[in-house]
Amino acid sequence: MNASVEAQIIPPLRDIGGFGVRRALPAPNRRSIGPFVFFDEMGPADFVPGQGMDVRPHPHIGLATLTYLLDGALFHRDSLKNDQEITPGAVNLMVAGRGVVHSERSPQDFRAAGGRMAGLQFWLALPQAEAERAPSFDHFDTGQIPLISGEGFRGRVAIGRWDGATAPVHNHFGPCALADIALDAGAVYEIGADYEERALYLISGVLEIDGKGFAEKSLIVLKPGEKAVVRAKTDSRVALVAGDPMDGPRYLWWNFVSARRERIVQAREDWIAGRFLGIEGDAEFIPAPELKAL
């Protein structure tokens, strides 16, 4: 595409019951960036009093979910008996390993008052040697997430190491990073080649790279080994994802990630048969869809 950019992905907006979602990964021309195999932007959506978001109980294997809110609030529950409210800037990381169930719903106070909801959700594939590890859960409040700043920019490092800061979140995935970066209009920011695979998701604003403009709601995949100079044409906000290549391809089906087809088949059978532990206080059940060719 140009000297620094390998591809641009413009995820379509899908409506899921009045709530818009853009899925940047996986995409037809790009399945992953480092261990990041799934990337959704949720919203923004404005809920009136009495309404809210309900991600019903569902299972995962072989991955970690990372929820990062830009606005609003969610309440996380899982089969490990964790109950945790998520607020903007906090990092909520659940490692599924051999199997876990979780739900994310609007907290009661948010639902009663209404308000704006927006956020990012990621799945990170576990290394094959760690895919069947015991599930676990970590939560880090906003004040625990390290800040980065410089001329015309400021940001937060949600996972891994970026721009001299290291997140406290335990890294189960090998070398990788996730950062939330705000750029003032006119700011210049250099993206180093610390990781082989890197991409910028433009949440808002307009950027220029090598003289080409990029509008909001697009994933800009950078070329391996090449530094990139980003110029903000307007006030902008980006989510940077980066990492070294995974140890082999992954299959994604429904909520499951694995290097082996048969493991996904087994996980589906386990869910149907009720062999996953449930969530205390949130017993709603979602049937597994029909399994088509992987």
Automatic annotation (TrEMBL):
Residues 20-124 form the Pirin N-terminal domain. It holds the Pfam family Pirin. Binds 1 Fe cation per subunit. InterPro entries: Pirin, Pirin_C_dom, Pirin_N_dom, RmlC-like_jellyroll, RmlC_Cupin_sf. It comes from the Bacteria. The keyword Iron applies. The keyword Chaperone does not apply. GO terms for molecular function: metal ion binding. Residues 179-276 form the Pirin C-terminal domain. Keywords: Iron, Metal-binding. CDD domains: cupin_pirin_N. Its cofactor is Fe cation. Fe cation binds at H58, H60, H102, E104. Belongs to the pirin family. This is Pirin family protein. It comes from Rhodoblastus acidophilus.
